Each structure stands twice: as structure tokens, then as C-alpha cells.
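Here is an idea for our session: we take a single protein and study its fold together. To get us started, please write out a protein record for me. Once you have written the record down, we can walk along the chain together.
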Amino acid sequence: MKSQAVVFTARNQVEYREVDCPDPGPNDVVIDVEHSWISNGTEGSFLRGERESGDTAWNEGDPLPFPIVAGYQKVGVVTHVGADVTKFSLGERVFAVMSQFEGLFCEYGGHVSPSVCDANQVHTLPEGADPVACSGAVLTQVGYNCGTRPRIKPGQLAVVVGDGMVGHWTGQALKQRGARVVLTGRHDDRLDRFRNGGWGETLKVKGSGVEEVKAIANGPVEVLVDTIGNMSLYDDYLPIMAHGGTVVSAGFYGTADLLPIQTYRFQELAFDLCAGITYERVDATLAWIAEGKMDTLGLITHHFPVEQAAEAWKVIENKTDNALGVVLDWPASRK
């Protein structure tokens, strides 16, 4: 079947064009997409040719990973249900992850409509949930994972490095657990969003931020979360980490990812390596969004008609207009 998709055709080249998708099978659901949320960091690394798939870095000599349809999150309305699918019904509004393609470098991706999805990639929206708020639930789930996984008690200090969306949602999840949260970053507008939302303290930093954190910490750092992919943070923060504390890794390190584990053994640090999704975690994240425990709408800075996806990516990659949450609105949202 034919669909329309946001296609990365080469490094830094974006087109909205027709693609081929397989005809839906008995375990598939077809979705008329209304909104899809761009994952600036992950999709940007695909656009620059830095990844082959998932968390697999591109190496010199590998085939260039194009053309691909990047992305992995959207909401829309079910228009077809396979014979063996019992969970979903026609006309139901759902959240979906990966969709299927034919004839591309990778045969799975996100920004496409109509979207052919295995039913295991589709989630029921909680009753009363705002569809736009849920359209970035995979990325929100990364923050949920980073914030709910580490060991921490109410009142203990958690430092989240990076004021992007994952940093915000990690901080929100830690706040829900009673932690004292400090978000560090370099963007006044993003830090203001976090602080003014009541999620915790903020520090504008130039480097690792460890000296700024030391100045306000009044005790050790129980949890350090790296959302930016900077391994030097581990050594920088080691002197102020709590004995038995936790380091959460959520950044992309490319091929520079070797960790001298013996360095951290004496302090008995735990490492949480957060990646990917689980079905249960996406459902839990959607529930938190619907209950107001995580704020997604407050991070949206831009909406673009999907036909202007190339312009959206110019704004993201050129770092103009303080872009943070960028949502693509599909024709179905205008009906």
C-alpha cells in the first residue's frame, strides 16, 4: 500500500514523499496519523548519518543508512484491524510506535500515514488523555525510565544533566518520587520551564556543572543522570557522588563508550543503562501523562504541518527559535 512519510534521503536531506508499506496482515492495525512528535536527539543523529539503527553507531566503511523514515511515536485513529487483532477497534484513537515499510534502508520507522503497525506496537490511550500530549510517549517514557529506575529516597539529591526533553521528563519523574531535583543546562528558556513548572531547581552551566552543583548541594549526589552522552561527567562527579549512589546513562556515546569500571568500584556505584522501551513502561508513561504527573504539552515549542517537515528540521538542526518539543500535524488532524 502507498503512504506518505517523512524520509531522510541522505545526510541532512529531508523530504515528505510517498513510500511503500506492506499490505496489513492479520496481526496488524492501520492508523490514520494525526500527530507525530520528533525526537530531536535520536532522529537528528540518524539525519546526520551517525547511527545505523537503534543504539548502533555508524562506523567508517559501513553503508550509509539512507533512505530511512526516522521517528517512533505518533497518535491517530484506527482505520483497519487485522483478523487476529482483538484489542483495538475501528475509530479508536491510539498511540503507536514503529510502522512497517518496504524498499528502504530500514523497514521500520515512525513518521508515516497511513501507518501499518503490528498490534504489539499500538497502545490504547487512557480515557480523557490529550492526544497531542501523548504523541511523544516513547521519548517521555525514556524520562520515566530514567527517573523511576534509580535507587533514591525522598529528599535525596538527584542531578539531571541536560535540559532537553529527556532531561525535563527525568526530572519530573524523580520529583514525583520525592527527590530534590537539580536540572543543569545551558538554555535559559528551558531551565525556566522546569523551574517555573515547580519540578525542581536549575543551574545554568558551561561545563560539567559539578562546581555549581557543589556550591548548592549540602550533601552528596545520590543520583546522577546523563542525558547528553558525555562520559567525562562520570569522573567529574565522582568526588561528590554518594557511596552506593546511582549513575543513570541515557545519552548516545557513539563509538566512544568504553568505561573503566574499576574506577567506580570503590564507591560501589550502581549504573543504570537506560534504553529502548517496554510495552508496560509505555502504558505506565501514558497513564502518568493522563494523570498530570508528567507535563508534555508545556515542552512543545513548535507545530509544523507535516508537509513542512524539512523546515521543522532546519529549525531543530540550526538551533533557531529555541526549539524543544516539535510536533508534526498530519492531514487527519485538520479534518
